[in-house]
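Hi support team,

I've been running sequence recovery on a batch of backbones for a student project. Most finish fine, but this one hangs at about 90% for roughly twenty minutes before it completes. I'm not sure whether the input is malformed or the queue is just slow. I've pasted the structure tokens below so you can try to reproduce it. Let me know if you need the job ID as well.

Thanks,
M.K.
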């Protein structure tokens, strides 16, 4: 009896998908050798205004730039204090509203009673529909000489109402770290 209950619980837990809430991707010119890149700087002093007060936040801009600078420095890149660097950084941050639904759920119930066995199957029409915000951070690495895009990293996450600057900073750091963990791309040769 207990083994059957444990088996059912384990089966249900196995069906719950794991979600970190953050997905990252990258795109780059596969013909380039990124090993020669050593120095960087920001192409502009601040992000271009979008008209969205949630995005056009100088505190958020500072957090993103600080996280990118720190992570690239930890990887051995140097921020150029003067002269032209080898590559420029540009980022874009956007927030968009999304609509989500939980979909159809199925379930099987098995029970044992004093006078026999009972079982049943249930199907529901799914959970409710909900609206949520999704933030997307795009970090571009641009060749300083030609102005060509060399590499683009993207991070997308479902946003929650943050309770304070510590949590916002933690989310920014995690997003930047996971995006830039893909840079430089690993050679496939």
């Amino acid at each position: 009896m207990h083994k059957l209950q444990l088996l059912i619980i384990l089966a249900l837990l196995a069906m719950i998908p794991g979600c970190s809430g953050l997905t990252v991707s990258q795109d780059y010119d596969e013909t380039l050798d990124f090993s020669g890149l050593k120095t960087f700087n920001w192409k502009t002093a601040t992000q271009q205004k979008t008209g969205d007060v949630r995005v056009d936040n100088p505190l958020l801009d500072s957090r993103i730039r600080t996280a990118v600078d720190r992570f690239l420095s930890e990887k051995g890149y140097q921020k150029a204090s003067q002269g032209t660097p080898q590559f420029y950084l540009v980022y874009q941050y956007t927030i968009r509203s999304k609509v989500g639904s939980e979909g159809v759920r199925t379930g099987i119930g098995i029970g044992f009673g004093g006078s026999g066995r009972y079982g049943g199957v249930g199907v529901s029409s799914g959970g409710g529909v909900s609206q949520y915000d999704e933030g997307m951070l795009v970090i571009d690495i641009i060749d300083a000489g030609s102005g060509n895009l060399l590499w683009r990293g993207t991070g997308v996450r479902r946003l929650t109402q943050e309770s304070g600057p510590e949590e916002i900073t933690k989310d920014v750091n995690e997003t930047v770290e996971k995006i830039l963990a893909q840079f430089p791309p690993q050679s496939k040769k």
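--
Follow-up from support: It reproduced on our side and the slowdown came from queue contention, not your input. Helices lie at 2-15, 58-74, 165-180. No action needed from you.
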